[in-house]
C-alpha cells in the first residue's frame, strides 16, 4: 500500500532470456531490445540491472521477491507471453505464470494469453 491506496500491478512476466530459448538472432535482438527499454525507461535513482542480471531466466521466487518484498505492490497479474515465433517458450512461459499465481491465489491473478497466429492454425 502507498498512503492507504491499494497497489495493483497489472502485469508481471516470468521472463526466460536464456540464449538457448531464443530462435536465433531475431530472438536475441528482441531480448536486447527489451534490455534497452529497461535501461532507458528506468528513472534516475532506481535500480538498473546489468545485462547479466537482466538477460537470464527469471524465477517465480525472483518475481515474488521483487513485487512483494521490494515494492509496495499488494496484488499483481501474472501474464505469459505468446512470442513463440521468437522464443521456444514464448519468453514468459504459461506454466511459470500459472505456478506463480497458484502460490499466492489471494494476491496474484493469472492472465492467459495466446499467439493468434498459432490459434489460427498458421503453425502446427
Query: Main beta sheet: strand number and arrangement?
Result: 3 strands, parallel
- SSE order, as H and E? EHHHEEEHEH
What's the overall average pLDDT, rounded? 91
Q: What's the β-strand tally?
A: 5
What structural class do helix, strand and pairing data support? alpha/beta
Give the total of domains: 1
Helical amount: 25-40%
Strand fraction band? 5-15%
Rg for CA atoms = 15 Å
Shape: globular
With strands numbered from the N-terminus, the spatial order across the biggest sheet is 1-2-5
* Tally of DSSP helical segments: 5
User: How far is the first residue's CA from the last residue's CA?
Assistant: 45 Å
Query: What are the segments in which pLDDT stays under 50 over at least 5 consecutive residues?
Result: none
Detailed description of the structure:
It contains five helices and five strands. By secondary structure, it is α/β, with parallel strands linked by helices. The chain has one domain (8-119). The longest helix has 18 residues, at 24-41.
Amino acid at each position: 500500500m502507498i498512503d492507504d491506496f491499494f497497489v495493483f500491478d497489472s502485469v508481471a512476466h516470468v521472463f526466460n532470456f536464456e540464449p538457448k530459448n531464443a530462435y536465433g538472432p531475431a530472438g536475441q535482438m528482441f531480448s536486447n531490445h527489451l534490455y534497452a527499454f529497461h535501461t532507458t525507461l528506468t528513472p534516475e535513482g532506481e535500480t538498473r540491472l546489468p545485462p547479466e542480471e537482466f538477460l537470464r531466466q527469471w524465477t517465480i521466487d525472483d518475481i515474488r521477491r521483487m513485487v512483494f518484498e521490494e515494492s509496495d505492490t499488494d496484488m499483481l497479474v501474472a501474464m505469459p507471453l505468446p512470442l513463440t515465433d521468437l522464443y521456444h517458450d514464448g519468453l514468459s512461459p504459461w506454466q511459470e505464470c500459472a505456478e506463480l499465481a497458484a502460490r499466492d491465489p489471494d494476491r496474484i491473478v493469472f492472465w492467459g494469453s495466446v499467439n493468434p497466429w498459432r490459434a489460427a492454425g498458421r503453425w502446427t
